[in-house]
Amino acid sequence: MFKKINILFFILNCLTIESQIPNTDIWLFKLNRNKNELLPVNPINITNRPGYDNQPSFSNDSKKIFYVSVKNDNQSDIFCYHISKKTTLQLTNTTESEYSPYLNQNSNYLNSVVVEKDSSQRIHFINSLNDLSEKKIDIDSVGYYTFLNSDTVLYYKLTSPHSLRYYVISSNKDFWLANNPVRAFKTINRYSFIYGIKDSLKITYYNYDFRLQKAEKYTQYNSLNEDFIWHQQFGLIKSE
Length: 240
Hints:
Oligomer: single chain
Number of strands: 21
Largest sheet: 4 strands, antiparallel
Radius of gyration: 18 Å
């Protein structure tokens, strides 16, 4: 017997900021649970237009979806889709480009990677409609990020090779974790997260515990597709 649960997820294509921008749409699904299976049903294309619509994230109450859209002027701005109302609102309209909108779990701030006028890429705080706050995290070359807690941000740095790092806001200290990470890394709780390291053939996933300051191997997968999520019941769910 199928049991319908209130979990939503996206099928999407992700890319690093410096890559050529493709045509992408954001699709929203319900998940049906059948014992140990999660089956996507009721697909809805919430953008459905030519151009780049990508990098979605849910609001804390799962009622809204934040994402970025690139129009004909190649400018990237943040939009918000209200799931029950099926309406879309543009949140930023700036001379900079915003990417990876993410509602901070520990505050009401909407964070975003902003490509600044000098081509720096830093994490900014969005404080109102059509406005960027002056508040930002002063680390450059950020490709992707997520907050472990209110004081620690994990981020993918566009170094050579690319690296996975974390930054402690209160102490203004930056730490290296690994080279050649995949672009997805997900928090498990406020002390740990899961990430992947790729070579030419496979991705090896690790669970890092900040209390122990230790990485433990979680699993290995013989594919270089980088996107995954962490599910509290099912663990790592990988796109393929």
